[in-house]
């Protein structure tokens, strides 16, 4: 018996210099999640950055009052698909971390629904990561992480936590959900850092 998941059948054989090794170009947007899609009401949504000394909080309205950027980027999933030229809109982590002080160098992203993933802080700053609320000019669908998700497009897409609710500073690069289950601690698609 075979099992087919949307996004895994009929893959394109096109090649492109923007495709990392082992990746296949797709034109749809496959949906992969570690559990059920949480229902997140924007009236109760909150984003937090937690350091060793403080908690910085933004409500939905406060977050949407921050400067937003349009982001065009390629995304790469560890399951071998890549989608090129995706369009997002959101807030740069440079903006979110502007007044955050911490001695720690690592971040654990926590999601509504319980998912976690670890990322070094220096991989989130300097125009490398965003919390986004739109995809292709529309509000982000819940199945793709809406109302808000993290995107860290230079790493495999499991690092781009859906339904993000907090970024917690850590002194060590402790593994998150998939990293505890065999995925690489870092996840660079150009180095094929898929698994431990």
From TrEMBL:
Pfam families: Oxidored_molyb. SUPFAM superfamilies: Oxidoreductase molybdopterin-binding domain. Residues 1-21 are annotated as: Disordered. Signal peptide: none annotated. Residues 35-178 form the Oxidoreductase molybdopterin-binding domain. It comes from the Bacteria. This is Molybdopterin-binding protein. It comes from Agromyces aureus.
């Amino acid at each position: 018996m075979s099992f087919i998941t949307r996004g895994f059948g009929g893959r394109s054989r096109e090649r492109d210099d923007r495709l990392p090794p082992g990746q296949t170009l797709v034109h749809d947007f496959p949906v992969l999640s570690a559990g059920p899609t949480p229902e997140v009401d924007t009236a109760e949504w909150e984003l937090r950055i937690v350091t060793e000394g403080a908690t910085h909080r933004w409500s939905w309205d406060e977050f949407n009052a921050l400067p937003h950027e349009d982001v065009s980027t390629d995304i790469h999933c560890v399951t071998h698909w890549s989608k090129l030229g995706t369009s997002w809109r959101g807030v740069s982590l440079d903006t979110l971390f502007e007044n955050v002080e911490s001695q720690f160098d690592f971040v654990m992203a926590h999601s509504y629904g319980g998912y976690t993933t670890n990322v070094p802080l220096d991989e989130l700053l300097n125009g490398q990561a965003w919390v986004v609320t739109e995809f292709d000019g529309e509000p982000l669908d819940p199945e793709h992480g809406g109302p808000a998700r993290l995107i860290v497009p230079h790493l495999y897409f499991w690092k781009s936590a859906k339904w993000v609710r907090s970024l917690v500073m850590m002194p060590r690069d402790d593994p998150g959900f998939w990293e505890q289950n065999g995925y690489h601690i870092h996840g660079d698609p150009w180095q094929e850092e898929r698994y431990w």
